[in-house]
Amino acid sequence: MGATQALDLVARQLLSPGDRVLVDEPCNGNLVRLIRLCGGEPVGVPRRQDGPDLELLDDILSRHRVRAFFCNSTFHNPTGAGLTPRAAFGMLKRTEAHDFLIIEDDVYGDFHPGGRQTFAELDGLERVVHTILADGTYLRHARAIQRRLATQQQLTQKALRNLGWRFEVAPAGGMFLWAGHPDLPDLSGFIAGLEEKGILLLPGEAFAVTADYRAMTRINAAHFSPTLAGAFRVGEA
């Protein structure tokens, strides 16, 4: 069973029409559509480098009763952000105080080159729904992918920085890089130009719950190569 199917099953069992559901902002657009399909109302919680923005979360919780929080803890899609113990503990304290569940999609966790923090590790699965897949063959394969993605991230970030691109988060591994360029307040034209060259990027708007992400895009570092770097030079897309 894939992660998308697992999330679908959980959402269908858990959510009722009108339930408010917290999600990371930005967020995987498929998850937002799934929540709405189940009758839920997604509410974005800004995702920072260390985890959810707890101050803004408190404001949301003071105004709304929520059913659950769907999130990536490791290599968040699309920003690549992680989760610190402080942010994780803060989030779990709020699940107790406000009586909601965390649905943790840790699909990229095993690709982290070092130790990673998850909600499930701290919570003992009392308020966290978490799936685990681990046998010897899988773990060996995951470690090989860890090394490759860590190298790819370093190469991609270096190449794009040299071309003026900026990142809110500089992930140590994983596939995704959430990027923008100071000279491009709206990336739609640039992305369209790359598409004509056979290079496909997801625009930031695909990950919006309510925020404006026209100046952002998700770049797949796993498929980036030096031969592609020139296409990302602003003014040449």
From TrEMBL:
Domain Aminotransferase class I/classII large: 2-134
Pfam family, one: Aminotran_1_2
Name under which the protein is recorded: Aminotransferase class I/II-fold pyridoxal phosphate-dependent enzyme
Keywords linked to the UniProt accession: Aminotransferase, Transferase
Keyword Amino-acid biosynthesis: no
InterPro entries the UniProt entry points to: Aminotransferase_I/II_large (IPR004839), HTH_trans_reg/aminotransferase (IPR051446), PyrdxlP-dep_Trfase (IPR015424), PyrdxlP-dep_Trfase_major (IPR015421), PyrdxlP-dep_Trfase_small (IPR015422)
Record has Chaperone as a keyword: no
Alphabetized GO MF terms: pyridoxal phosphate binding; transaminase activity
Record Gene3D superfamilies: Aspartate Aminotransferase, domain 1 (3.90.1150.10), Type I PLP-dependent aspartate aminotransferase-like (Major domain) (3.40.640.10)
